[in-house]
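FAQ

Q: What does a record look like?
A: Structure on top, sequence underneath. For example:
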């Protein structure tokens, strides 16, 4: 069921958070403040249906203590440490502004991801970076040159399923379906989905209080259209729809 899947997701994410030394429970605002840039926290606080983030408790349900202990012991045994990840929290309004500023979805998404890549590639240590393929794009050299000016960038492959580059001792791959191939990308996907699900809980709670009888939404296209129609019927649509609806 969806609810057991979400609980399993929460257990996985909170287990890794605690293995990284992050203290739980906390508020959603506290968690995002530890993982995201301040500009994203500002966007969070300025979005009406997300203003309850300071009172939204993480975790919602999971009791991950046993899992956390087992994971930490296993990582220690292997000599592996898990660091807190970095992520972007981008509400619809901020996402739409990026699309407008960069001439389309592709440029907007690259602009959102760029600070994360810069952070990951900034170290002189050997790094392997895996990115889930961005749409049908195959050529990332120009973008990587902007991120790593002056670095000895070399394209190893620019194919339909994989684009791979090196820049000194840094290895960067863009893979179709990366979250099904690379553990680190799968884990990043889990964190992103968990934060999204947390935000949707806040979102639904806000709207249910303001539009009596409205059914919550998971936010995906078909049901989102139903939800927006319900808001319009209740004459509760925001004056600027771009704050609510992410452009595709």
């Amino acid at each position: 069921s969806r609810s057991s899947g979400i609980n399993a997701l929460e257990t996985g994410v909170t287990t890794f958070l605690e293995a990284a030394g992050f203290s739980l429970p906390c508020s959603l605002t506290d968690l995002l403040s530890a993982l995201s840039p301040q500009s994203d926290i500002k966007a969070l606080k300025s979005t009406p249906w997300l203003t309850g983030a300071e009172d939204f408790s993480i975790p919602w349900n999971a009791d991950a203590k046993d899992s956390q202990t087992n994971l930490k012991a296993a990582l220690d045994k292997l000599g592996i440490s898990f660091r807190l990840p970095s992520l972007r929290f981008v509400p619809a309004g901020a996402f739409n502004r990026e699309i407008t500023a960069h001439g389309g979805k592709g440029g907007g998404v690259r602009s959102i991801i760029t600070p994360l890549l810069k952070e990951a590639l900034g170290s002189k240590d050997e790094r392997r970076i895996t990115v889930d393929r961005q749409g049908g794009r195959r050529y990332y050299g120009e973008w990587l040159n902007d991120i790593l000016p002056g670095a000895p960038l070399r394209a190893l492959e620019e194919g339909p399923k994989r684009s791979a580059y090196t820049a000194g001792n840094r290895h960067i791959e863009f893979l179709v379906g990366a979250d099904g191939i690379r553990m680190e990308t799968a884990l990043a996907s889990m964190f992103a989905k968990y934060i999204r699900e947390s935000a949707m809980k806040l979102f639904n709670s806000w709207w249910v209080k303001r539009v009596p009888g409205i059914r919550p939404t998971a936010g995906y296209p078909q049901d989102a259209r139903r939800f927006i129609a319900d808001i319009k019927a209740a004459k509760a649509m925001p004056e600027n729809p771009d704050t609510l609806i992410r452009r595709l």
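Q: Is there anything notable about this one?
A: The radius of gyration is 20 Å.
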